[in-house]
Amino acid sequence: MEKSNKGKKVLKICLKILIPVVAIFIIAAIVLQCCGFGPLFGLYEPKSDSHKYTDELEDYGIWDNTIDKQMPQTVVYKLVMDHFKAPLPEGKTAKKVIFLGFDGFRADAIANIKDDPKSAIMYVKSKGGLYHTFAGGVPGKSEQHTSTAPGWASMLTGGWSIFHGINNNGQNKNANETFLTTLAKQGHPASFTASWREHTALSYRPDIVRSIKENIPVTYTHCIDDMDTYYHVLDYVAKAKGEKKTPQEDPDVVFFTFEFTDHAGHLYGFGNNKNYYQGSLDANKFGYDIIKTIEARSTYAQEDWLIVISTDHGGTGHVHGGQSIMERSTWLAVNKKLNVNDSYLSFEND
Ligand SMILES: [Zn+2]
């Protein structure tokens, strides 16, 4: 009898402790999910939010294709190579391309700059178009992480990770060529400028070593931060009247990435907060300045420039890498109107 009373007492004490602990855990999980920390706990946004997200993107009314006609991010490679294959327009004597990469610039962050004609994205759209694209590969076929290294490699090589060998951050690229290497070998000096150390320390280290050993004119520069990247690129594209630059000081192919939005997203959350907003403004402001510097080149009238801006992935909460719509949805601005047909929708090197 005394034993069973003791048992009840223990049970009562346990319940007294357990119930508040479980309640606190449930409340904390709900609060963290609402604050965007869900993915850290494996609590991704429910499916219904995906529709809300794509509806919100469509509501901006700024896209030149519909979301069901999203192009794979690999299409960047096709745009660049097609540009160099096409004959020079009348009066032009040189082909040029610049690719502005805005790291982790979520598609809905375009809302932050869509009414600013002096933003890089909206300015480039006014010359051509702004298109829905996607990161993360083709589900069930070539799925890859919506991460930085696989994203840029897919744009640079035109294939998914099964083609370029980078399925996640922390991996070396294989021997399949980027458009930088291919065009440089064809006589178009190229440059790659970024402050994310992994680009030069890991992903493109095999390409850098090859460029050095085989004397391929691609210049890879690791910068301290985005401002350093900005000044480096400005130096590549500026050309004063009468200024003489060597081919490598004045590359035909300019590729760079800004980390403004990705850094803000990891620290403060991808989406609606003032730091992420500021990141999207900064990328656009400095990007716009670079484009205007190109237009002010003393040789601009004789040059045929392709200008492309895109992002490697979106984000959810403070992270990315998964397959949610917020992470997969990307975008592409280009200074030429595209006829988004099957050759764009299904393009991939394999
Ligand atoms: Zn990234």
Brief descriptors of the model:
350 residues, alpha/beta, Alkaline Phosphatase, subunit A, 2 domains, eight-stranded mixed β-sheet, 14 helices, 8 strands, binds zinc ion
Question: What's a quick, concise take on this entry?
Answer:
Helices cover 44% and strands 13% of the residues.
Task: Describe the protein in words.
The chain folds into two domains: 1-34; 48-345, Alkaline Phosphatase, subunit A (3-Layer(aba) Sandwich), CATH 3.40.720.10. Residues 33-47 have low confidence and may be disordered. The N and C termini lie far apart (76 Å). An eight-stranded mixed beta sheet has the order 1-3-8-7-2-6-4-5, with helices on both faces. The chain has helices spanning 2-34, 47-59, 75-85, 120-127, 148-157, 161-164, 179-185, 197-203, 205-214, 226-237, 260-268, 274-295, 325-328, 342-345; strands at residues 71-72, 94-102, 129-134, 190-194, 218-222, 253-258, 303-310, 329-334. It is of the alpha/beta class and 350 residues long. It is elongated and about 95 Å long. Zinc ion is lined by residues 103-104, 148, 262, 312-313.
* Major sheet details: 8 strands, mixed
Count of distinct strands = 8
User: Looking at this structure, what is the CATH superfamily of the largest domain?
Assistant: Alkaline Phosphatase, subunit A
* Overall average pLDDT: 91
Question: Which molecules are bound besides the chains?
Answer: zinc ion
Return Rg in Å. Answer: 24 Å
Model regions low in confidence, pLDDT < 50 over at least 5 residues: 33-47
Biggest sheet: strands side by side, in what order?
A: 1-3-8-7-2-6-4-5
CATH level-3 fold name of the largest domain: Alkaline Phosphatase, subunit A
Q: Which class of the largest domain in CATH terms? A: Alpha Beta
Q: Strand-residue fraction?
A: 5-15%
Tally of helical runs: 14
How far do the termini sit from each other? Answer: 76 Å
Q: What's the helical proportion of residues?
A: 40-55%
Provide the structure class.
alpha/beta
Give the CA-based shape.
Answer: elongated
